[in-house]
Amino acid sequence: MSIHLHRHPQNSLREQISTLGKSLFDRGLTMGSSGNISVRLDDGGWLMTPTNACLGRLDPARLSHLDNSGQLISGDKPTKEQFLHMAMYEERPQSGAIVHLHSTHSVAVSCLPEVDPCDCIPPLTAYYVMRVGKLPLVPYYIPGDPKLGDAVRGLAGKHSAVLLANHGPVVAGKNLEAAVYATEELEETAKLYLLLRGENPRGLTQEQVAELEARFPRD
Ligand SMILES: O=C(CO)COP(=O)(O)O
Ligand SMILES: [Zn+2]
Q: Are 40 and 95 in contact (CB under 8 A)?
């Protein structure tokens, strides 16, 4: 008797969401049941992490599968930030994945009184410019507030990453790996920014930033 193993095209994406979620959680990049991940599917639908799920213990089979209007097709109830993710995708047809975390240093920066709301972290390193670029601050809303979607809609066309005030980063990438790399770069640069606070550090010059943007365009 032959065994026919049918591999659903979503299977590897489901596994990748769970593996990278665990990697982020295991390294302390988000705590408890905070944070959420989504991936856009070829048919315009999405896979999203369920609400109240721990990113360290995702079950690939229970991820929320949504159609292209955001209706749940299968799996557990989606993240309460579903509309935030969908608003970001709407503005960014080139983005295939979004990661939202409560990564500590990024959240700390989101609480500082002196941050420039148009650009929360200066261009300290080349990789920050290459992966993140300018980081606008989104005013505070309660988690899951549909108004968060409206607030990012005006920013996400120009920016692949935004920082939610007193909450955390939301980062888009062309695929999940790219979104995770950018989130990690953002968190490390937030840490550097806090380490160097009060030291008047030299950032990259406008010319150095322009050279990086020409050589390594972000999507
Ligand atoms: O980070 C979160 C809310 O902003 C977590 O919410 P969910 O558990 O609904 O994904
Ligand atoms: Zn959150």
A: yes
Decide whether any atom of ligand 1 lies within 6 Å of the 50 Cβ: no
Query: Which of 91, 127, 211, 213 is an active site residue?
Result: 127
> What was the ipTM of the complex prediction?
0.99
Q: Is the pLDDT assigned to residue 25 strictly greater than 90?
A: yes
pLDDT (mean) for 62-84: 98
pLDDT score, position 219: 80
Going by DSSP bridges, is the β-strand pair 36-40/97-100 parallel, antiparallel, or unpaired? antiparallel
Active site residue 127: yes
51 CB within 6 A, ligand 1 = yes
Residue 135's contacts (CB-CB under 8 Å, 6 or more residues apart) are 119, 120, 121, 159, 161, 162, 163, 169, 186
Domains annotated on the chain, with CATH = 9-120+134-176 (3.40.225.10)
The reported pLDDT for the residue numbered 216 is: 96
pTM as predicted: 0.95
Query: Would you say the CB of residue 80 lies under 6 angstroms from ligand 1?
Result: yes
Q: Hey, which of 31, 46, 47, 52 would you mutate to test ligand 1's pocket, going by the most ligand atoms within 8 Å of its Cβ?
A: 52
**For the CA of 58, the nearest ligand:** 1
Burial of 48 (0-12, 13-18, 19+ CB in 10 A): buried
